[in-house]
Amino acid sequence: MTTELKRNQVTGTGIPVSGNDIDTDRIIPARFMKCVTFEGLEQYVFYDVRFDAEGQPKAHPYNEARYQGGSVLIVNKNFGCGSSREHAPQALMRFGMRAVIGESFAEIFAGNCTALGIPAVTASPKDITALMQIVDKTPTSSITVDLESKTATCGDLNVAINMPESSRQSLAEGVWDTTAQLLDKKAIAEATARIPYLNW
């Protein structure tokens, strides 16, 4: 069960979104969180900085044709701060993000990413700048995030990455999806988690 869930390595092209302290309300504005499920949230990612009041596109990496299909988000300091809403990483994942590399993350945002199978790894400001410059110059450059070697590579650039060891292990071992874990052990749960007054 865990084999297909393992996230030892993620490879894809990048999308650089620069700026410090990008909070969860900028990632997914609160007014779009009225849905019962998370389906469809991808269309509202960075909505208020991607579109004007008339819904016309503004200058933003997520609107640029050269970055379409990118799956590795590159950000700066304190990304995902503010509200602890899970909608932010859910929206990013549904837009196609499979990994996030940044200078630093809000702790709850990074934890929510792990719970969705998305590695949120940190690198030095110098290395983040170098990654952004490469992707800006050559958007088709492939980026590989390797949790085993704790490195991210992009062309000739090889940078050290970090993340909490517990998160790295759960992703690498494929045990990050707690719902899948419970379903995989359904028989054990049914045998032990009985409610006395229910006739099971």
Reported CATH architecture: Alpha-Beta Barrel
Runs in which pLDDT lies below 50 for 5 or more consecutive residues are none
CATH class: Alpha Beta
| Principal-axis shape | globular
- Structural domain count: 1
Oligomer: single chain
State Rg: 18 Å
- The tally of strands reads 7
Order of helices and strands: EHHEHEHEHEEEHHH
| Share of residues in helices | 25-40%
Structure description:
- The structure is a single chain.
- With 200 residues, this protein is α/β, with parallel strands linked by helices.
- The chain has a single domain, classed as Aconitase, domain 4 (Alpha-Beta Barrel).
- 31% of the residues lie in helices and 16% in strands.
- It has helices at 24-27, 47-50, 87-95, 107-115, 125-137, 165-173, 178-184, 186-192, and strands at residues 9-16, 72-74, 99-102, 120-122, 142-146, 151-154, 157-160.
- Strands 4-3-2-1-5-6-7 form a seven-stranded mixed beta sheet.
- β5 (142-146) and β6 form a beta hairpin.
- The chain is globular.
- The relative contact order is 0.18.
